Amino acid sequence: KTVLTQLILFFRCLEDSPYADVCFIVHGVPLPAHRLILSARSSYFAKMFMSKWRDRPIIELKNKLVRSSRI
């Protein structure tokens, strides 16, 4: 397979919910996500996934400052 084909398959996996390993609930809206990607891009997420959110597959965020782009 070409590199482009592999990248397309990779991005489909990122967008497809069955491959997500964590789900954030933001104001009632589920947002499937990938711990690996979030941890690699953010030290905040890396710390939270190693502590408070370690064994939680569903994380509800209720802070008024947190907004979902899907709302």
Helix content: 25-40%
Gross morphology is: globular
The end-to-end span amounts to 38 Å
Number of helices: 3
Note the topology.
Layout: H1 3-15, E1 22-26, E2 29-33, H2 35-41, H3 43-50, E3 58-61
Parallel strand pairs: 1-3
Antiparallel strand pairs: 1-2
Helix pairs in contact: 2-3
Overview of this structure, please?
A hairpin with a 2-residue loop joins strand 1 (22-26) and strand 2. This protein has a three-stranded mixed beta sheet. The mean pLDDT is 85. The termini are far apart. It has 71 residues and is an alpha+beta fold. The chain has helices at 3-15, 35-41, 43-50, and strands at 22-26, 29-33, 58-61. Helix 2 (35-41) crosses helix 3.
Q: Could you list some keywords that capture this structure?
A:
alpha+beta, 20% strand, 39% helix, 3 helices, 71 residues, 3 strands
Quick structural gist:
The chain is an alpha+beta fold and 71 residues long. Helix content is 39%, strand content 20%.
